[in-house]
Write a structure and sequence with these properties.
two-stranded antiparallel ribbon, single chain, five-stranded mixed β-sheet, alpha/beta
């Protein structure tokens, strides 16, 4: 019967998102989110961090292994590379609000005690998490969003999004009812996986410099 379904079967975080309030209130509510099945295996919800309002918002895919353990976004190897790239592009990471399209770590592993291996979230899972991102946008009110990778792009811009077709360009779209400017680029984890890591890193920095020129000096 429909009335006996678990909350995660509805694939929406909407019932868990409080109306109004602060980022702290959102973060506290998100800790109990069961808007999709990903909460079952993850250690904890990994919510966004940073100032609000903020001129710049960075949106990634989902937490990784280290983020899941520490409860903060972009604290693993990809996050360290992103911080370096931001600084090289002229952006202070501390002045940006950083979050993910999906707030729980999705992973697989061949055996129970083996290392947890990242698994890309589905569009359905990203859509389920959309109400959290909408609430963050409403409070952070960014002037510019840097979209990190294909999953974040599809969550924000739809399933037809292709990061390599639009990376390093400025897009103007309505996102969750708000007119937004966005600069897509690759996810820093893609740089770490690249055969030519140096060239991939330079491409990420070049895209972030587009964000700098669009936004102007961050003070």
């Amino acid at each position: 019967m429909a009335g006996t379904r678990a909350p995660e079967d509805a694939y929406t975080a909407e019932p868990f998102v409080p109306e109004g309030g602060t980022l702290a209130a959102l973060r506290e509510a998100a800790a109990g989110c069961r808007g999709c099945p990903l909460h079952r295996a993850a250690t904890q919800t990994v919510f966004g961090t940073g100032p609000a309002p903020a001129r710049l918002m960075l949106v990634g895919e989902q937490p990784g292994d280290q983020e899941d353990r520490q409860g903060k976004p972009f604290v693993g190897p990809a996050g360290k590379l992103l911080d370096r790239a931001l600084a090289e592009a002229g952006l202070d990471p501390a002045q940006a609000y950083v979050t993910n399209a999906v707030k729980h770590f999705k992973f697989t592993r061949a055996e129970p005690r083996k290392r947890r291996i990242h698994k890309a979230p589905s569009l359905r899972e990203a859509t389920a998490c959309g109400p959290w991102l909408a609430a963050e946008l409403a409070l952070v009110e960014p002037e510019l969003i840097v979209v990190l990778g294909a999953t974040a792009g599809k969550a924000l811009l739809g399933s037809s999004f292709r990061v390599n077709q639009v990376r390093g360009t400025v897009l103007e779209e309505e996102i969750h009812g708000r007119p937004e400017r966005l600069v897509p680029t690759v996810h820093p984890s893609a740089v770490l996986r690249a055969d030519d890591r140096e060239r991939a890193y330079e491409g990420l920095v070049a895209d972030l410099k587009v964000a700098v020129s669009t936004l102007g000096p961050l003070k």
